[in-house]
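Q: My labmate handed me this sequence with no annotations at all. I'd like to see what the chain might look like in three dimensions before we decide whether it's worth expressing. Could you predict it?
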Amino acid sequence: MRTLPQRVTLNNYKIGMETAMNKLLQNQGFRYHLLAYVLVNAILIVVNLMHPDHLWFYWPLIGWGIGIAAHGYSVWKQPVRRPSPPMGR
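A: Here is what I predict for the chain of 89 residues:
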């Protein structure tokens, strides 16, 4: 028999979001990717706004943002790896 899904409350939603964010931020590769994205795009925005003849900073922001979203999704969908028990003698 099929059970009904648990009712979504604001508290359940917050707990789920915290769990998802913790999983993403525990992945070292994702953290480095996100940090590089923020730093490089901040520099590109500043450079572009210093010479505002043509605004182009949003193109790398969007393109790389798609890559960050895909990376985050792949990390989020990975099963949780538990350490294997030590081998006995």
